[in-house]
Amino acid sequence: MLTVLPEFTSRPEVLLALFTLGYLAGSIPFGILISQILGLGDLRKVGSGNIGATNVLRTGNKIAAFLTLLLDFSKGICAVLIARQISAEDAVQVSAFGAMVGHCFPIWLKFRGGKGVATFLGVMIALSFLVGITCCFVWLLVALARKMSSLASLVSAISAPIATVFLDQPNSIILITSLVFIVFFRHRQNIDRIIKGVEPKIGKAG
């Protein structure tokens, strides 16, 4: 029988605490902070106005983009690994969900955050290395083939629940499906541009 949820054994206050910690960690706007530290201006006024690594790259500073990618990626990893040291798998998944929500809907930025891809991939890597690597490989393959970060992100996200069922942890399928929904929701304008054939390539404004 396919188990799509972990066994819930953690106390409600533990789940709430780890969701809150995950949310607060996820809500740190590294793209904005790095851009300000390096004198790149207000990232929300550059390109698409998004706070993620793809938009940081549009400033022309590859180091800033890499640092943003790395730190946003680390949000997902830390949310999972720290929670795993504290509590059971149910709390791990709640913490991971909190980090994703925090990144995409940070209270500090009036709930206008990033699109969640780096954090999503960090969560995948920490939950299951094999599934995470599969998602990263899919992202890279599509990005190289089509030169569109958004399309690569969407295809990578779709690959996650499929890989989860066939490769490793089916008990995280509900969590992962929820995260995929968030990724698609945050990319809804990109999806519209992809359909219209006007989505900008990696490194271009848009």
Explained architecture:
With 206 residues, the chain is mostly helical. The chain has one domain (12-196). Helices cover 68% and strands 0% of the residues. The chain has helices at residues 12-26, 30-37, 53-57, 62-86, 89-104, 117-127, 129-146, 149-167, 173-186, 188-196. The N and C termini lie far apart (46 Å).
Write the layout of secondary structure elements.
Layout (H helix, E strand, L loop, with lengths): L11 H15 L3 H8 L15 H5 L4 H25 L2 H16 L12 H11 L1 H18 L2 H19 L5 H14 L1 H9 L10
Helix pairs in contact: 1-4, 1-5, 2-4, 4-5, 4-6, 5-9, 6-7, 7-8, 8-9
Write a concise keyword list for the protein shown above.
single chain; 206 residues; mainly alpha; 10 helices; 68% helix; 0% strand; globular
Cα(first) to Cα(last) distance is: 46 Å
**Kindly state the mean pLDDT as a whole number?**
91
- Counting DSSP E segments of at least 2 residues, the number of strands comes to 0
Molecular shape: globular
The helix fraction, in percent, is 55-70%
Number of self-contained structural domains: 1
Helix/strand order, N-terminal first: HHHHHHHHHH
Number of helices, where a helix is a run of at least 4 consecutive DSSP H or I residues: 10
Largest sheet: none
Low-confidence parts lasting 5 or more residues at pLDDT below 50? none
Instruction: Briefly note the structural class of the backbone.
Output: mainly alpha
CA radius of gyration: 17 Å
Strand content: under 5%
